[in-house]
Amino acid sequence: IPMTVREILKMGDERLLRIAKPVLEFNTPELLDGIVDMKETMIAASGAGLAAPQIGWDIQLVIFGTGQIISRYPDAAPIPYTVLINPVITPIGDEMQHDWEGCLSVPGLRAVVPRWQHIQYTGFDEQGQRIERTASGFHAKVVQHECDHLIGILYPQRVRDFSKFGFNSVLFPNLAPEAND
Ligand code: NI
């Protein structure tokens, strides 16, 4: 299968603001090929996740995972590589986390964003097999961030304390340059 690193749309592009369409057919060549491209694109960008709308694909599909340590999040525990389609997130309890977040569609910036600390998420993989998991901390944060892309929300819309929103290179000057996107 030819793999293609796709262009990641940046904030301001109206295609990032759409409500994504549910996937109705699984295990199709179009779906599988698109997922291969998304994985290539995510790895090339050292991302922890990528949502289909970020490559202009208007469907409810996200991928995420940190099989290996990635430069953008060197301290995070690994998350299994996951394809999640038509996701539904349900908070567990009311505990919040407030942690730094970035986005490949908002390069160079980070902010502290409130997220649920514990969630359940459900959906389907590319074969149509049901996924049902609980997650906490970084894993829960990544899932909430990626699924926000499916309802046209980028993390700056979630920021409450704008004193904790700035440029990576200023906030974290000791991070490796490749993490500064
Ligand atoms: Ni993002």
Defining key terms:
binds nickel (II) ion; globular; 8 strands; five-stranded antiparallel beta sheet; alpha+beta; 181 residues; three-stranded antiparallel beta sheet; single chain
Distance between the termini: 29 Å
Largest sheet: 5 strands, antiparallel
Beta content comes to 25-35%
Inertia-based shape: globular
What's the total count of β strands?
8
Uncertain spans, ≥5 residues at pLDDT below 50? none
Structural class: alpha+beta
How would you describe the overall organization of this protein?
The mean pLDDT is 93. The strands form two sheets. Strands 1-2-3-6-7 form a five-stranded antiparallel β-sheet, with helices on both faces. Strands 4-5-8 form a three-stranded antiparallel β-sheet. The protein is an alpha+beta fold. The radius of gyration is 16 Å and the shape is globular. The chain is built from three helices and eight strands. The chain has helices at residues 29-44, 137-148, 168-171, and strands at residues 49-51, 61-64, 82-91, 96-101, 109-116, 118-124, 130-136, 165-167. The two termini are 29 Å apart. Strand 4 and strand 5 (109-116) form a beta hairpin. It binds nickel (II) ion. Nickel (II) ion (NI) binds at residues 103-105, 145, 149.
